[in-house]
Amino acid sequence: MSTPVLELAHGVVGYHGRPVLPGVSLRVNAGEVVAILGANGSGKSTLIKAALGLLPLTAGSARLFDTPLGRFRQRYRLGYVPQRAGAGSGVPATVTELVSAGRLPRRRLPWPRWSADRAAVTHAIAVVGLTEKRREPVGTLSGGQQQRALIARALACEPELLVLDEPTAGVDAASQVAFAGALRHFVDAGGTVVLVAHELGPLAPLITRTVVLHEGRVVQDTAGAAVATDSTTASDPGTGHHDEPPAPSPVGWQPSLIQELPR
Ligand SMILES: Nc1ncnc2c1ncn2[C@@H]1O[C@H](COP(=O)(O)OP(=O)(O)OP(=O)(O)O)[C@@H](O)[C@H]1O
């Protein structure tokens, strides 16, 4: 029997009384690499925030590592990189300093456990390919490198679950490839990944399952990677605003719009 890592059961979430998730259920097991796809505003970010306890559920329940969210205390077991996190603007911290901050959930008194902490930070930076940049202020790095530094920060506490909200949005091709390599490393070591994406790009071969959201509901849940071939998953990076979701076609959502990719 697979071990559940993240579970949302009939979760209802809304903003200012407006329901966004009308009762969504999702269970992710250890070792899965789940891509959550869907149009702008379909509720992808809301779903992962609710599953992590960052947004309250109006109804339903959530569990992390088989523990009800309200009783879950082992935050070091998960790493979360929010959407458009932005690592560096105006912050003089170096890559090493930023990544070291990610180590904090693992630290216990008495402080410090230097060797283990240093090794974890050094390793996380190496895995995302930023060793040569480790002493540079984060603000001087490219957007893709900053994103990799944020991933390294999440990896530094040696999580078992990584939750990434559009980790490659606006990221240059080289950084996307480096990021995919870091994720492969994490997955090969037994990690579980949930990521929100518009385009999978170099991440596609890693994906073991694709969940598609439409208007807050899971409309497709299939093995392997899939990619949308129409505008329903087009991103809106220019404004950051949410487009209205497309009107449902007379026959409803068409799974045929999602193509299976080779694994
Ligand atoms: N803080 C908020 N306050 C009010 N409404 C919000 C808030 N955050 C999101 N929403 C609305 O909830 C709906 C779902 O948003 P969400 O960000 O979860 O979608 P998404 O699928 O992640 O979209 P995107 O791909 O554009 O990031 C949208 O209609 C959005 O405008």
From TrEMBL:
GO terms for molecular function: ATP binding; ATP hydrolysis activity. It holds the Pfam family ABC_tran. Residues 6-240 form the ABC transporter domain. Residues 223-236 have a biased composition (Low complexity). Keywords: ATP-binding, Nucleotide-binding, Transport. Transmembrane segments: none annotated. The keyword Nucleotide-binding applies. InterPro entries: AAA+_ATPase (IPR003593), ABC_transporter-like_ATP-bd (IPR003439), ABC_transporter-like_CS (IPR017871), Metal_Ion_Import_ABC (IPR050153), P-loop_NTPase (IPR027417). Residues 223-263 are annotated as: Disordered. The keyword RNA-binding does not apply. This is ABC transporter ATP-binding protein.
